[in-house]
Design goal:
single chain, 95 residues, 65% helix, 0% strand
């Protein structure tokens, strides 16, 4: 996860600065949504910006929550289990 989240590379002092930066009202879910969308679009600048809105731990939690919710929606749409969809998305063979 640290490799994917540039803000996770900051030390403890950087976390406090990261959590306090950005415009007021940003929350971990907004940061995660912007971060993941920017990642999908290969927009490094926007990824770095979103990573400053919350602490690295909060961003990681938000990204995990987004992945879980997206997986559940896709599984329902495809009438498949979440594990089947996750494996298909990642190109992992079924058991």
């Amino acid at each position: 996860m640290r490799r994917l989240l540039p803000s996770a590379r900051r030390g403890a002092g950087g976390e406090a600065a990261a959590a306090g930066s950005g415009r007021a009202g940003r929350n971990l879910f907004e940061a995660a949504a912007v971060y993941v969308a920017a990642l999908a679009e290969d927009d490094q600048e926007r990824m770095e910006e979103a990573a400053t809105w919350v602490s690295p731990g909060q961003l990681a939690f938000g990204v995990n929550e987004l992945a879980s919710r997206a997986l559940l929606v896709l599984a329902r749409e495809r009438s498949q289990t979440p594990e089947t969809v996750a494996r298909a998305l990642l190109g992992v063979r079924p058991d």
